Amino acid sequence: MDRAEYERLRWRCIRRGLLELDLTLTKFLDQEFDKLTEPEVEAFKKLAELEDWDFLGLIVGGKELSDPHEAAVLAKLRKC
């Protein structure tokens, strides 16, 4: 992934509205972005379109996702 894509995603994550989610997502991007595959980046973008409370609920809740790339991203997010 290129640096411009990282910066765009990071900017979107900083401006969400829930501080807890902002911090979790920016930490995740800082630690994991360079390790993500292209399908995982696309899955992260899709997850980032969720409403704040829904996204945070996925991260802290036990719900699993059927899409393998989204599930992989969610598992990595939960470790942050």
Question: What is the secondary structure topology, with strand pairs?
Answer:
Layout: H1 3-14, H2 19-32, H3 38-48, H4 52-60, H5 68-79
Helix pairs in contact: 1-2, 3-5
Subcellular location: Cytoplasm
Family: Belongs to the SdhE FAD assembly factor family.
Protein name: FAD assembly factor SdhE
CATH topology: DNA polymerase, domain 1
Q: What would you call the shape? A: globular
CATH architecture: Orthogonal Bundle
CATH class term: Mainly Alpha
Question: Whole-Å distance between the termini?
Answer: 20 Å
CATH superfamily: Flavinator of succinate dehydrogenase
The portion of residues assigned to helices is: over 70%
- Provide the succession of SSEs: HHHHH
Q: Count structural domains.
A: 1
Report the uncertain regions: none
InterPro entries: SDH (IPR005631), SDH_sf (IPR036714), SdhE_FAD_assembly_factor (IPR050531)
Pfam families: Sdh5
Protein name: FAD assembly factor SdhE
Family: Belongs to the SdhE FAD assembly factor family.
What does this structure look like?
- The chain is an all-alpha fold.
- It has one domain: Orthogonal Bundle (DNA polymerase, domain 1), CATH 1.10.150.
- Helices cover 72% and strands 0% of the residues.
- The chain is built from 5 helices and no strands.
- Helix 1 packs antiparallel against helix 2 and helix 3 packs across helix 5.
- It is globular, with a radius of gyration of 11 Å.
- The protein starts with a helix and ends with a helix.
